[in-house]
Amino acid sequence: MMRRFTARMTFGTSTMLALLTFAALPGCKHSTPAHSALKATAQGTVLVETSGGHQVGVTGTALKDPLVVQVNDDHGTAVPGALVEFHGSAGVSFDPAAALTDGSGQATTSVTLGAIAARYDLSAVTPGKAAPVSLEIVETALGYQERVGSILADKYCSRCHDSESSPERVSNYDNLEVKPHPFTEGSTLNKMSDADLTSIILHGGPALNRSALMPPYGNTLSAADVKALIAYVRAVADPPYQPAGTVYARK
Amino acid sequence: MQLIRKYLSSAWQALFGDPVRAFGVVSLILLLALAIAPAKEHFSQWHSYQRKYLALIHDRGDAPSLRRRFVPGIHQTWLPELGVVDRCTTCHLGLNEASLADVSQQPFRKHPVVPHSLDGFGCVICHGGQGQATTVAEAHHSERTGEEPILPTRYIESGCGQCHQNALPGTPQLNLGRTMLGRYGCVHCHAVTRPDGSKVEATDHPPTLAHIADKTTRAWVFSWLKDPQAYAASTTMPNYKLSDEDASDISAYLMKSSMPQAKDTATPGVKPAVIADPSAGPSLYGESFCASCHAVQNAAGNLVGGDLGPELTRIGNKAKPEWLTAWLENPRVYDATTPMPRYRFTPQQVATLATFLQAKSDSDYGSGIHLDAASPQQIAHGRKLIVELGCAACHEINGVQRPEKFAPELSTIGSKPLAQIVFLPGMEHTLPNYIVAKIRQPRAFGSSVKMPQFTLTAAQTDALATALLALTARGRAMPDNLRVAAVPETNYQPAGHAGKLIAELACLSCHRFNGRGGDMAPDLSWEGSSVQRQWLTDFLHNPNTLRPSLIRRMPRFNLNDSDNKELTDYILAVYQSPVIDADLAPVATNPPDAVEHGKQLFYSKYACQSCHIVDTKTDKGYVGPTLTQVGSRLTAAWAYAWLKNPQALRPGTTEPNQNMSDDDARALTAFLMAQKAPGGRGAKQ
């Protein structure tokens, strides 16, 4: 009540202050985009992602691999010297934010994702001959919990759930009679509720009438570990996981 | 002038001309003055954020419950024992609202899940910034004396590191940075004391330079000093950006001060008659698993191999042949504390390996270097430079004392007041920026800066900055019960003749025993409870990897039978687990039905074949050790205890604890113990 009263009292002052603010505005510093004068010597018509898309990084830190895009012309030939600008939502930064393509038609930038754990839609834009051509790129930033999940997945799960092998770590995927679902397989895993995923992790495959090749981790992982694992699975799902959310009655 | 005066006096007349008018105007001014305070509150930043928050939740399905929990006004988290007075929640209104996890509009998003409750710790302890401030600029970006701007997200793990001195599983960047403080030898020059008083110890192994002339030439030392990374891309030795004269003078002093190493009398020298077998070189290098510790650049320019020992890509340019031979014979003569094992190579093998390594050279490296014999003045100048640059902080150098407190202590670098920092022009005035710039290019801060140029990747620099930012005054002021201590290395040293053997073979470079040693190979603290005598003897004679998917790293040492027996006896007697009682072995005899029952459990109930192989024809499990001959390797007591609770025997092992009943574990043990090696012997040769 008191607050509302004050608000009404000061209404007159607000207009005056607004006038004052206007008067002060020209003094404000206008931040100008720090684009260095890059002179494009050529223009392409097609943008292609070479590498660096679909990475899973950590909030606020640079992605492991640089983002590389290539500018081609109508015939699919690489165009050197074309200008490529990189754009992202708030919090995303590129180093450099704009670049000219090199001799092989490629522009490279290092991407730092924002502070919010989410999927980031980035775009690369090149002026093009007639209209600007753009290319969408998706990167994922993990927060604390998802990253703990990724570290746990790396230790306990990936040997079987990730079919990719490296000399340091040979995948066990191909050796299994019943194939495990890769954690990126959103088409399957998105349909499973958190409760289902929890019970399959805690009690093993047979808990949901699935293969016993998936052992129970209920006595090995803590409840927080399991939550972190599920958060990670949700974060990397492709297609993206859409939580059902809480349903509230409208008033 | 006249005109202005006329206007002013007419204005005065209009406002204060008669008493009634003057009273009215003064009252109006008074009213306006009284309105300043409420107006300030109304237009305060936090007030506008609270209104935005109400607008944000207005259309949401759960608006009634969100609105019910919303309290207008300034919010404050006050935790006197932690020194926390945080008003951040005045604007960050949704931090504890689970349903606002999908909101991307700051400052209203829910806080991500972290192990601590926000009410129990507040915000500033982890994030930095000014807790009491109620404007964004003051709270986030203040750089006034004694105040710290908020920590950028990329260094956020340093917040954890203030209390958690141990390696947390969720902070890889902080853990890497802390390892680097030791690995890159930062703490040789900069002392770093943890809040509990313990010191961060260096984990690199800077070689002694007391006998450098035995090992290499002055020309090599010169080119090494000029650019260490040109010789070995992976070396942790930084670049001091020395001029040709300075590098030449330092190399002259090092050669002059070097004293010949006393000859090893215990081992017979290599007979000159022994002829190397050049064709056997590569295979001997491979069989000896040199690459477990040493890296070599391949044709593509990638480093292949471990980083425990120095890179060997151009070792032929560096090592004198007679030194290399003596080193391969017994490295402990030259360097008593080297992590390199003494292989007990035969003279023929030493010659072969030395020839093979000597051939690893680059004819372009150091070519065209001609150093004139140094004058006494130049040698004295070299010594002066060595003292000035603090070379002896890392290396043992004859005639130069190890300097104490050579560089500034970094124990509270994370709280360094910004007023004490000289920033470079154009640099954003924050502590993280300063630290990163100082690591990246120390000499940019002035030509008198002695700190050399390290070769680090951006990720390494960020990790190091994170570890340094964690060294705060706040961390030191935390109550003791909140602090989690680092797990220090024990000073465990195996005793007796076997202890000498273990030191000679440098087992602790890779294996861990009783809280000390490397992490490349399994912890052997309880190996004596785990394995059978015959298997251990055979393994030491001719090691083989137990896991099909792992790269074998254990080298084969030419142990004679008596040394082998000594080592086996010692391991079996000393490295016993207190929780395993070998006398109470659950399976004395293996009745066939127990074995059969165990087999069923193995393949159906527990589906062990997903990770292990018992029958090579049908099983493909590639994660855990192969169990084809496990009955000849493990003791029954160990196998049983392992099945009951693997993590109790080896914390952090990936095999899940299946909460097995005693009966199941007994039957499975019977099945496993029935998997004997052919002929009743241990590991197949």
Characteristics:
heterodimer; A: 251 residues; alpha+beta; Immunoglobulin-like; Cytochrome Bc1 Complex, Chain D, domain 2; 2 domains; 5-stranded mixed sheet; 4-stranded antiparallel sheet; 6 helices; 20% strand; elongated; disordered N terminus; B: 685 residues; mainly alpha; 5 domains; two-stranded antiparallel sheet
The main β sheet of chain A shows up as: 5 strands, mixed
How many domain regions of chain B? 5
Structural class of chain B: mainly alpha
The named CATH superfamily of the largest domain in chain A: Immunoglobulins
What oligomeric assembly is this protein in? heterodimer
Neighbour order of strands in the largest sheet of chain B? 1-2
Q: Based on CA inertia axes, which overall geometry of chain B fits?
A: flat
CATH architecture tag of the largest domain in chain B:
Orthogonal Bundle
Largest interface (C-beta under 8 Å): A-B, 64 and 54 residues
The profile of the biggest β sheet of chain B is: 2 strands, antiparallel
Uncertain spans of chain A, ≥5 residues at pLDDT below 50?
Answer: 1-34
- Alpha-carbon Rg of chain B, integer: 35 Å
Low-confidence stretches of chain B: 680-685
Rg measurement of chain A, Å: 25 Å
Short summary of the structure?
Chain A is an alpha+beta fold.
Task: Note down, in words, how this protein is organized.
- Helices cover about 25% and strands about 20% of the residues of chain A.
- With about 250 residues, chain A is α+β, with helices and mostly antiparallel strands.
- In chain A, the strands form 2 sheets. Chain A has a 5-stranded mixed beta sheet. In chain A, strands 1-3-7-5 form a 4-stranded antiparallel beta sheet, with no helix packed on it.
- The longest helix of chain A has 18 residues, at about 145-160.
- The longest helix of chain B has 24 residues, at about 20-40.
- Chain B has helices spanning about 1-15, 20-40, 45-60, 65-70, 120, 125, 135-140, 155-160, 170-185, 185-190, 210-215, 220-225, 230, 245-255, 280-285, 315-320, 320-330, 330-335, 345-360, 375-390, 430-440, 460-470, 475, 495-505, 525-530, 535-540, 560-575, 590-605, 630-635, 635-645, 645-650, 660-675, and strands at about 75-80, 85, 295, 305, 510-515, 515.
- The radius of gyration of chain B is 35 Å and the shape is flat.
- Chain B contains 32 helices and 6 strands.
- Chain B has 5 domains: about 1-40, no CATH class; about 45-150, no CATH class; about 170-205 and about 410-480, Cytochrome Bc1 Complex, Chain D, domain 2 (Orthogonal Bundle); about 210-360, Cytochrome Bc1 Complex, Chain D, domain 2 (Orthogonal Bundle); about 495-685, Orthogonal Bundle (Cytochrome Bc1 Complex, Chain D, domain 2), CATH 1.10.760.
- Mean pLDDT of chain B is about 85; it is low at about 680-685.
- The N and C termini of chain B lie far apart (about 115 Å).
- The chains are: A alpha+beta (about 250), B mainly alpha (about 675).
